[in-house]
C-alpha cells in the first residue's frame, strides 16, 4: 500500500499482510477500509493465484495505520461463491453492498458468480454476509464484472465492465449499458426520481423563505449600488456648477452682482474696462 499524506505532501509505503488484487475497498465512517474478495498469491507464490475467501475480510485502520483480518459469518440461504472484479458501495447504515464479479482468475473470460448481490453488515460482530432477494422491473438483468458502481441517495448506479456468462454459454463481451438498483428493496429499475433519494448527503431544494431572503439581499445590494452611483453623478454636476459660478465672478459692480463686459445694464453698449464703472456708464 502507498499512502499520500495531504498534511505534509509526503508519500509512504505500508506493506499489506497478504497482498491482493482486483478486490473491493470500502471506507467506513470509523476510518477503517474493508477489503473484500479479489485474488491473492498461493502460499506467497505470486506466480500462482487463487480467489480469496470472501468470508476472510482484510481491514486497514487509517487512524493507526495497522492491518488486521476479520472473519465474516455467512448466513445466506444459498451457497456464496468467492469472487474478484466485483464492486462495493457503502449504504447509509454502514452496510456494504457487493455486486457482480467473476469466480475465476481468467483475465479474458468472465464466469458469472452466485449470488451476484451480497450485503456485508459491518455493524454486527462478527461481520455478517447475507444474500437479499432481488427483483427487477427491467426484464432479465445481466451480471457484470470489472464494472463501476456508485451510490446516489438510495440508488446504486452500475456502468461499464464486462457481461459475465454461465459455464455453458459463450462470452458476451463488454457492457455498454447503465443499470440502476434501488437498494431499499433491492430492485433493478428503469427510471428513478431524483427528488426521492432521501440521502442526507443529497442537497434539498432551497425553501421559499430562503429564496425570499436571497431576493431581499440582492435587491438591497442593487439599490445600494444605484444609490451610490447617483450620489457620485450628483456630486460631479454640483462640482461643475460651482466651478462655473466661480469663473463668472470677474469684476464686482456697483449693482451688487457680477459685472461683465456686456452686462452694464445697457444692452448693446460695450464697456471700457479701463474706466471706472461710473465713467463707463456715462454717455
UniProtKB/TrEMBL annotation:
SUPFAM superfamilies: Kelch motif (SSF117281). Gene3D superfamilies: Kelch-type beta propeller. It comes from the Eukaryota. The chain crosses the membrane at residues 217-239. InterPro entries: Kelch-typ_b-propeller. Keywords: Membrane, Transmembrane, Transmembrane helix. PANTHER family: KELCH REPEAT DOMAIN. This is Galactose oxidase. It comes from Rhizophagus irregularis (strain DAOM 181602 / DAOM 197198 / MUCL 43194) (Arbuscular mycorrhizal fungus).
